[in-house]
Amino acid sequence: MPEQWIELIIVGLVAGVAAGMFGIGGGAIIVPALTLLLGFSIHEANGTSLAALLPPVSLFAVMAYYRAGTIRISTAVWIAVGIVFGGILGANVALGLPQRDLRHLYGLFLIYMGWRYAEPRIWLAEWRGQKKAAPEAARTVYSQWYALTTLGVVAGVLAGLFGIGGGVIIVAALVEFFHFDHKQAVGTSLAALLPPVAFGAVIEYYNEGQLNIAVAALVAVGLVIGSIAGARLALRMPSRTVKRLYGVFLFLVSLRFLLT
Question: What is the DSSP string of 127-190?
Fold first, then answer.
């Protein structure tokens, strides 16, 4: 049992809150925390993070979103199918890349997504009183199965590469390309990540000796509790606020990978 078990459960709690709020697996917090707290290599942190996300740690968060009517089950199913295959591919690619290159690639990806979500120019204009935020208009939601499965494959590749659940790309794509409301995208993303869709990727990391099961189990305990709190917070906030908080969160996490 790792000596830092309290710290690991706290890592899981924080990652779980982020998962419940933003529809992600939590790996964007778990991976850098493992490299900082335990000195894990990026590959071992990726594998351990994915293993921590295998159990249905977001079950109660998904139930909260379902009760609020913000989950599209059929959409989640098609995305989950794609993640299964994409995760294996992403893990194999990651295991063949140098660690420094992988960290920087991850950082660039997160900073781009953070910019998209935080909308800093609009935020600054509103702060100066130059522009009021327009209310989010209702849009037709699209759900073609082949497009959703392709999204799942892309999310799975990113999950295998970076040890994340894939929710970072799922939420963004559902909002930008499928016209989902942000909270609906978050709930649907969590539902898609609820089954053990990254199992194939975890096996790849395990076969290469890049997985610490004890650490993954402790982090998973925190994830369960934190995701419930995160979901409750998000459901009480305006979608725009949750979206911008997510952008700031991604930007901060990206710095860890770009500056090391």
Answer: HTTS-PPPPPPP-PPP--HHHHHHHHHHHHHHHHHHSS-SHHHHHHHHHHTS---HHHHHHHHH
Q: Which residue has the tokens 């609020």?
A: 68
Q: Which segment of 188-202, 214-228, 241-255 scores lowest on mean pLDDT?
A: 241-255
Tens of pLDDT, residues 96-132: 877 677 778 778 877 887 887 777 777 666 666 665 5
Q: b or e along 169-181 (b: 16 or more beta carbons within 10 Å of the residue's beta carbon)?
A: bbbbbbbeebbbb
State CA 71 to chain mean position distance: 16
Distance (Å, rounded) from C-alpha 40 to C-alpha 66?
36
The whole-angstrom separation of Cα 187 and Cα 160 is: 22
Instruction: Report DSSP state, residue 195.
Output: S
Q: Are 238 and 70 in contact (CB under 8 A)?
A: no
Report the distance separating Cα 230 and Cα 47, nearest Å.
24
pTM: 0.81
Phi, psi of 195 (to 5 degrees): -70, 165
Helix axes 42-52, 199-207, angle to 10 degrees: 140
* Residue 44 to residue 47: CA distance in whole angstroms: 5
Closest CA to 50 of 199, 175, 187: 199
